[in-house]
Design a protein that fits this description.
256 residues; three-stranded mixed β-sheet; 9 helices; 5 strands; globular
């Protein structure tokens, strides 16, 4: 398969609408609908979700962008600082997005006197559906390409080179969507208290275990990591896998 789609979907006067931005928006919309379903199912005020969602968008975007800037392409962005704001072109690190979501959730719970663990576990489930859309956006940007391959799954990213490569971002998109289905099944089958206890931990650990292993199919994204036995993505995933395990077993006040 040869892939050479223009990252810009269309233009509105001087404004360029990128495919990445479209998929990011679709992912956020899907996450909101999941959150709306959860809030209605558990008898929560949906208007509260609307306010919380704004917190999450800001927290995830800032956290994910800053992690990408500082851990993946620091020299470039220091030379082009205004491009840090051009999130719609791609360049978000999931590790930073999780940190941003945690901070946003803590701030929101503190302001509205809500149980952090209840909200965080539900936010993790809703946020998980965003991940496949982001990776599809990466695919449309012809970025985060995989290592060369002779398999039937190989894709020639013509904007990069003429070598068939693993479409690793599509592997990730599929794996994250499968993890979402499993996590949503757990949410439906477990009691609300049990999901509050383990939900966020299962999702965080699952996402970054997937990320760790699929890094073996990616081309290096950070020159710093080239001298180390693990990629930057793998090194950043270690503490999040540990965090997920800790969250599962950490004793929580789980009243809703």
């Amino acid at each position: 398969m040869h892939w050479n789609i223009n990252p810009i979907a269309f233009t509105l006067g001087p404004i360029q609408i990128h495919w990445y931005g479209i998929f990011f928006a679709l992912g956020l919309l899907s996450a909101f609908y999941v959150g709306e379903y959860i809030f209605k199912k558990e008898g929560k005020d949906v208007k509260l979700l609307e306010s919380y969602f704004l917190y999450l968008i800001i927290g995830i975007t800032i956290g994910a962008r800053l992690f990408h800037v500082f851990f993946y392409d620091f020299d470039y962005f220091m030379a082009h600082p205004l491009e840090i704001l051009q999130v719609y072109k791609g360049g978000l690190a999931s590790h930073g997005g999780v940190i941003g979501a945690i901070i946003a959730t803590w701030l929101f719970c503190k302001k509205h006197n809500l149980n952090f663990w209840w909200l965080f576990s539900r936010a993790a489930l809703g946020g998980l559906i965003l991940a496949p859309f982001i990776r599809i956006g990466n695919f449309f940007n012809s970025e985060i390409v995989g290592l060369p391959t002779k398999s039937a799954f190989g894709v020639v990213f013509e904007r990069v080179d003429n070598i068939p490569r693993h479409p690793v971002v599509l592997y990730e998109a599929f794996a994250y969507f499968l993890l979402f289905l499993i996590s949503f099944y757990l949410y439906k089958k477990l009691s609300p208290q049990k999901f509050t206890q383990i939900g966020a931990g299962v999702i965080i650990a699952g996402v970054f275990i997937i990320r760790f292993f699929l890094e073996y199919f990616k081309t290096p994204q950070s020159e710093f990591a080239n001298i180390l036995p693990f990629s930057m993505g793998q090194m950043l995933s270690f503490p999040f896998i540990l965090l997920g395990i800790i969250v599962i077993f950490y004793p929580k006040k789980i009243n809703n």
